[in-house]
Write a structure and sequence with these properties.
129 residues; FAD/NAD(P)-binding domain; 2 domains; three-stranded parallel beta sheet; 32% helix; 19% strand
């Protein structure tokens, strides 16, 4: 079976490589940087992303790497110092959910190493940073 080349070792590339490897598709991921993200960015994971990670068997690991859900809050304003900005605290227990999981705050510098490790454990994946 021919393999798949994934260019880019961010969350999307690592997720694609992991899923292909789980499906026994030979995959090589190449990334120009020497390692995963070193500072927080891209931190909100949607319910759908968490459902996908759940179906792949890594939801517990992703949840452990993220902030506790009781600290889940979002800010809306013109800037981070906007005096009329609003901080919205999410409370998944306050309403019935159509999913067994929920949104999570897990920054990219915490998520990428987890995805890289999960993909690297697969024999059909070659991860090259």
């Amino acid at each position: 079976m021919p393999g798949v080349l994934v260019v880019g070792g961010g969350p999307v590339g690592l997720s694609i490589a992991l899923r292909l490897a789980q499906l026994a598709v030979p995959v090589t991921l190449v990334e120009r940087h020497t390692g995963t993200a070193t500072f927080p960015k891209g931190r909100a994971l949607s319910v759908r992303s968490m459902e996908i990670y759940r179906s792949w068997g890594i939801e517990a690991d992703v949840t452990a790497a993220g902030l506790p859900r009781d600290q889940l809050a979002f800010y809306a304003g013109r800037s981070l110092v906007d005096p009329v900005g609003t901080r919205m605290v999410a409370n998944p227990a306050s309403r019935p959910l159509p999913s067994p999981t929920y949104t999570l705050l897990c920054s990219q510098d915490r998520l990428e190493p987890l995805l890289r490790e999960a993909a690297s454990r697969r024999t059909t994946a070659r991860i090259r940073f």
